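Lab notebook, bench 4. Still working through the backlog of constructs that have no structural model yet. Next entry is a single chain of 167 residues. Request: give me the structure tokens for it.
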Amino acid sequence: KIKMIKSINRVLKIIIIKSPKNFALMCVLLGIEFLVITLSVFSLIPLADYILDSELNKPSKFSNYILNFYDFLNIKISFMSLGAIFILGQLLRGMITSLINYSILKIKYEFTKKINSDALNSILDSKWNFFARSNYGRMINTFTKEIDSVGTIIGYIARSFASFVQL
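Model written out:
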């Protein structure tokens, strides 16, 4: 397990070095997603209070904050208005999750592009003798399957990092 954790740490460092902008974007989006999820969960409290007591005679402390905010905005408190906040929060969360997935894929494909470019440059810089001794099938396999596998692993690690932060 320790060996695997060290390997994941090494790969995360490579991701950060090779794609710092996308990694930073992913981290910012994860922070925003955390706030949206928190607000979405807290938006259920006044909704539950309203369902239990539609007159809101004894709302919770948190519900009082929301109710005061509604009064400030001059919004009538109803099941629909309280539910709308929850639904808007879920829609916002879905959009942010899509942006997080986009940044993960961008990291994956930038990494794959970099590996492909480095491998191709290494091959093109090789001597003629290298090509005479090489197995073309193995070379093509390396270019297609193996490099794609590395990119997929990078994507999984970035997604695991995002899931860990979301947890």
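Notes after review: Helices lie at 2-18, 20-42, 44-52, 61-73, 79-124, 128-133, 136-166. Residues 79-124 form the longest helix (46 residues). Flag for follow-up if needed.
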